[in-house]
Amino acid sequence: MPVPDPERARSLDEFIAQLRLLKAWAGNPSVTAVTKRVHEQWHAAGRPRGEWPGRATVGDCFRVGRRRPNAELLVAIVRALVDDPEEVARWERVLGRIQGGREAAGHVSVQGRLPDDLAVFTDRAATPAVHGSAGGDPVSVFTGMAGVGKTALAVRVGHRLLARDPERTVLFANLRGFDPEGPPADPAAVLEAFLRLLGVPGDRVPRTLDGRVELYRRKLAATKALVVLDNARDEAQVEPLLPGSPTCLTLITSRTAPAGPGGVTTVPLPLFTPAEALDLLRRTAGADRVDADPAVVARIADLLGHLPLALSVIGRHLRDHPDWTPADYLPPLTALALEGGVRAALALSYESLPADLRRLLRLLARQPGPDIGAPAAAALAGEDVDTTQEGLRKLADAHLVECPTPGRHGFHDLVRAYAVERSRLDDPPTRTREALTRLADHYRHGVATAMDALYPYEKHRRPEVPPAGRFEPLTAAAARAWLDEEETNLLAVADDPDNPRHTADLSTLLWRHLHNTARSSVALAFHERALTATRALGDRAGEGHTHNHLGATHWRQGRFPEALDHYRQALAIARELGDRAVQGRVLNNIGIIHERQGRLSVALDHYHRALAVAGEVGDRASRSRTLNNIGNVQWGLGRHGEALASHQEALAIARDLGDRVNESMALNNIGNVHRCRGDHVQALEHFERSLAVARESGTSDEVGHGMTNLALACFRLGRQREATTLLAEALTIAREADNRLNEGYALTCLGVVHHGRGRHAEAIRHHRRAIAIAEEAGDHTVRLLALNNLGEALCGAMEPAEAIDVHRSALLLAEDAGDSYERARALTGLGDAHQAAGDPVRAAEHWRRAVVLYEDMGLPDASQLRARLEPTRT
């Protein structure tokens, strides 16, 4: 078997697939063996033992689509499998290339309308079929070299189709297949943007490519959409973006002809013929200008290679500069034509601008994001907004900037490449750096303003940001919209190694919003950059904050060991600096990890220490959140009255502060206490209020969790169909947010509903999936709940022997954690299973033990069990 070739990989998942093959080639050593080899490498290199990866971390590196892998660890794994330094270096180069292009590939340019049709257009004798119905097939591919007019032709055909059927939905994307300085657009990012244009909220866009493809095609099924995919690279980039519906039409432009499914018309576009070139110049510049010296104009067309884009630019220049004779163009055109006509056309267009617009164009090209709004452009240029808006309008009129959506300005890839080149030649590096710093200041100030609108009660925790530009106070809705619109640009600014202060500040400013809206992958990108930035700055406080934020992000994704490691580093730094407020918040977060891992007494100790610190420093927001967590542990320990009091105090503080997220949590937790007490009407009321608050605050995780609890209350009140619908939606939200904890919880609750409807096989399947997720994450809470639920479903399916085994496992876990409620449930389940197995004596023994626990907790389950025990006494 030959050594697998990493050069085959064009994405991270493909690289991991090749790594799997390399492992097989190396004799398929176990993950334990690979981990040991990595440890030996790092020991030899002097790495401290605390940095060595665990077996689970190494195993994760062989899984696709799961997480952001550690590049250094991936290379170490390759070195553990291959004993050839040159081969290892080759794998490392490929990985660097892939990771360098991943984020840039996520910057996409899409819009919900066609670009404006050209005022002048030369029909092509070589493409008569195009003018009918795009070849009669649902997909047409226009191919040819850069600047040959592929986009112009596709837009013309698109406008003709819309003229016949103006009700068609339009989706247009520039796929940047042959961008000179960046990777092609990621189809997953394009699909996300398309889905948003189709009305899918950002927090409902699926996380996986397959999920986005499925939802995209479902949205377009039976519609009459027109999809235009401009500048495509290949079939792999295009195929996920095809609607897959015969009622939709797709127009694709590409320098090569991507192979595709049946129903595709390929339209190769040659260069213009001499007659077509002259016709375009005549239409653009005016017949009088061309006919004044037709021989020289024909020569100009020849020098431009009959390339439509270059011809168009020169034609406009002829029209707008009547003092130039055609002969005046010949000296510069000769040299420019040798470089390739597209560059000549861009240069002439650029040179026709006044100095202030040339400067604006160069600066716009240097900004790191895919597009820009007028206020940000004004900050970049150091001008007022009105002046900048007028400049943007003029650049758009000159077709040097595009407006993908109202108020946003971007570039065609060739124009941007040329403008960047001119900037490097014409602008002093210090001036460019000053402009980019002004832009970063603008974005940082905008984020601070938006966060003040969304989370005013935490303003004291965020860094002080100097004003930069004018930002009027925002409503909460406007703040969310601005953050959503600028997210890609903010991430691009945070990627600037020359400005670590902005990177660190953006991470700290944004973390609550990213956490509450479940943008875990984006949060990781910000916080990992911030960790590097704070270390470069020597900012120990900032480094501690970043560790805390990374811990919260890993916890949300169910990676408890990584979360605990970051929390402990954050706590150590806070103690080093004597920052009591941060110590208290981190202690609370560490308590959450212990609680989820089933160490309730340890968790409670951390919570009480955190509560004491919150009182000491006067941090009421932290007090509210910690009280909520204390109530959860008290509930698990069977102290339901205390739990209710803790949650009610947390609720009162949250409402007083305007902390809508914690208000939603407290309402949810109060509902849980009422549900355990058998008061399902009260539970339903609190769950409904919790869900309404979560929706208002835009907190997707709390929305999903609230739907799950509301579903259980509906189920207990006989509203089974409503419960099933809610749980299906909660499951979708959890999966799209990559929240494994909520996914496991929703799965086991869906199993409870199936069990209640007599669908025992489906119930068992859902409970087992929930248990698998919980075991993978080390989540004791969901695992224990799902084990008891599984035991009940097995008993209902007349499999009492297996139910006994499952409830015994649950009982051991509950006793180990000190969870009185789930311990009582396990004993009840054991009694039911023994009764079903024909052993009433052992059944009664377990029921009696459960009665004692339920009585201690003051729950109505005690009287229900006594009724079962009565027949055993006669």
Structural notes for this entry:
The structure is a single chain. The protein has 874 residues and is mainly alpha-helical. It has six domains: 6-104, no CATH class; 109-268, P-loop containing nucleotide triphosphate hydrolases (Rossmann fold), CATH 3.40.50.300; 274-351; 355-427, Orthogonal Bundle (Arc Repressor Mutant, subunit A), CATH 1.10.10; 619-724, Tetratricopeptide repeat domain (Serine Threonine Protein Phosphatase 5, Tetratricopeptide repeat), CATH 1.25.40; 739-874, Tetratricopeptide repeat domain (Serine Threonine Protein Phosphatase 5, Tetratricopeptide repeat), CATH 1.25.40.10. Residues 128-135 and 334-341 have low confidence and may be disordered. A six-stranded mixed β-sheet has the order 1-3-4-5-2-6, sandwiched between helices. Strands 7-8 form a two-stranded antiparallel ribbon. It starts with 11 loop residues before the first helix and ends with a helix. The protein contains 40 helices and eight strands. The longest helix has 26 residues, at 429-454.
Any idea what the radius of gyration is? 32 Å
Main sheet characteristics? 6 strands, mixed
| Spatial strand arrangement across the major sheet | 1-3-4-5-2-6
Q: Which spans have pLDDT < 50 for at least 5 consecutive residues?
A: 128-135, 334-341
Tell me the CATH architecture of the largest domain: 3-Layer(aba) Sandwich
CATH homologous superfamily of the largest domain, by name? P-loop containing nucleotide triphosphate hydrolases
- Quickly count the domains: 6
In total, the number of strands is: 8
The CATH top-level class label of the largest domain? Alpha Beta
Which range best describes the helical content: under 10%, 10-25%, 25-40%, 40-55%, 55-70% or over 70%? 55-70%
Mean pLDDT: 85
What amount of the residues lies in strands? under 5%
Give the structural class: mainly alpha
Q: Give the end-to-end Cα distance, rounded to a whole number of Å.
A: 74 Å
| Number of discrete helical segments | 40
What gross morphology would you assign? elongated
